[in-house]
Design a protein that fits this description.
There is one protein chain. With about 100 residues, the chain is mostly beta strands. It has a single domain, classed as Roll (10 Kd Chaperonin, Protein Cpn10, Chain O). The chain is about 0% helix and about 35% strand. The strands form 2 sheets. The chain has a 6-stranded antiparallel β-sheet with strand order 6-7-1-2-5-8, with no helix packed on it. A two-stranded antiparallel sheet has the order 3-4. It is elongated, with a radius of gyration of 15 Å. The C terminus is likely disordered.
Length: about 100
């Protein structure tokens, strides 16, 4: 990627929503809710406190995070739909995030 976020901003790629319900009903794209979890693609260097000291971010590239439904700004970079948000928009990190990703069919 050729994009480097500044300050306490984070670039997140949404994890695709399930296309089928547990009962096997296929959900069309128009009816699917936007997922509120994603993989961290890039992080900025951190924010500055009142004294000007750099405070590093808690999230790291590759982690799976949970964020609010309307968090961040949607952008398209290198053909990918991504979100740019502040660290404060992230509610938490999902431990073992790789296991929650949608499996390729």
């Amino acid at each position: 990627m050729k994009f480097r976020p500044l300050h306490d901003r984070i670039v997140v790629k949404r994890i695709d929503a399930e296309e089928k319900t547990a009962g096997g009903i296929i959900i069309p794209d128009s009816a699917q809710e936007k997922p509120s979890q994603g993989e961290v693609i890039a992080v900025g260097p951190g924010g500055r406190d009142e004294s000007g000291k750099l405070t590093p971010l808690d999230v790291k590239v590759g982690e799976t995070v949970l964020f609010g439904k309307w968090s961040g700004t949607e952008v398209k970079i290198d053909g990918q739909d991504l979100l740019i948000m502040k660290e404060s928009d992230i509610m938490g990190v999902i431990e073992g995030g790789a296991a929650t990703k949608k499996k390729a069919a």
